[in-house]
Design brief:
Length: about 290
């Protein structure tokens, strides 16, 4: 008769509550699935499309044209701002990056309801995947921006390029933090999508994308100016200006005062957004399958 060995309790793997993971850290362990989600999102988005990824050039190009005619020509901002085209488009690139991540991340869990209800996987994968999808669309815009800046004599140094990278990191962190928060709330209350749409509409005007920072400083109370500077998108857009527009104009008074300090604050605020977003997401994700 064969002896059956028994496993002691000390040899058993530690049990953990189902559906509870390591949050954003789990994304690193599920990198392969993250790549699949990104590919799936891109295929679904351009299924049946004639232009496909060329829309990454057409949409920002049309947006730039409308804003340039309205603000640059009609309001004559192009006369008071050197290389206004570069100034405008560098801000558009940053704000589009934010809008795409935040907007799509908010809808990501609901749009992947079938996966959420059928299998367990880190739910954070859905909002995080939208960062990489946005990066696919960001690349052609940056290429166009670099080409346009070169026409105006763009000669960036290492600090300028670093500023551009920091700007994109700030935007990605802030958008992901808010995306985690609102994607979780959106599962319970679909009104969250409409709130985010309003937020995205205001975001373009609440940062120096279409106008220069000194117009805000000279027309609002000082406390409003400080609040405006606390907006991480304000620092991110100005860092993009420092990366692409400033090396093409070299205006010594073109940048807002204390930009490095405001940039550090923007990084801190974005980090807090990540923490709050992850906390709310973790608390609510246990209800996702039931609510969906």
């Amino acid at each position: 008769m064969t002896n059956v060995s028994t496993t002691t309790s000390s040899e058993l793997p530690a049990l953990r509550e189902p559906g509870v993971g390591g949050g954003l850290l789990d994304v690193l362990r599920w990198r392969f699935l993250l790549r699949l989600l990104v590919r799936k999102e891109l295929r679904v988005r351009y299924r049946g499309s004639v232009l496909g990824l060329l829309w990454s050039y057409v949409k920002p190009g049309m947006q730039f044209l409308v804003f340039y005619i309205a603000m640059g020509v009609f309001f004559e901002l192009n006369k008071g701002t050197q290389a206004y085209a570069v100034y405008l488009f560098s801000g558009i690139v940053a704000i589009n990056f934010f809008n795409e991540i935040f907007g799509n991340a908010t809808r990501s869990v609901v749009l992947n309801a079938d996966l959420v209800k059928k299998i367990y996987l880190p739910r954070e994968l859905f909002p995080v995947s939208m960062i990489w999808v946005a990066c696919v669309h960001l690349l052609p815009q940056v290429v166009i921006l670099m080409g346009g800046a070169m026409l105006f004599g763009w000669h960036p140094g290492p600090l300028n390029l670093l500023a551009g990278l920091v700007a994109l990191v700030i935007v990605a962190l802030l958008a992901l933090g808010l995306g985690l928060l609102f994607s979780a709330v959106n599962v319970l209350f679909r009104d969250a999508e409409n709130i985010v749409d309003l937020f995205l509409m205001v975001a373009t005007w609440a940062s120096p994308v279409l106008y220069t920072w000194d117009r805000v400083e000279s027309n609002v109370p000082h406390w409003v100016w400080l609040l405006y500077q606390c907006n991480p998108l304000t620092a991110a857009v100005e860092l993009m200006h420092y990366c692409f527009w400033y090396p093409a104009t070299n205006e010594s008074t073109a940048l807002p005062p204390n930009l490095p300090l405001w940039s550090l604050l923007a990084v801190a605020v974005s980090g807090v957004a990540i923490g709050i977003g992850q906390l709310v997401f973790s608390r609510l994700q246990g209800r996702f399958a039931q609510e969906l």
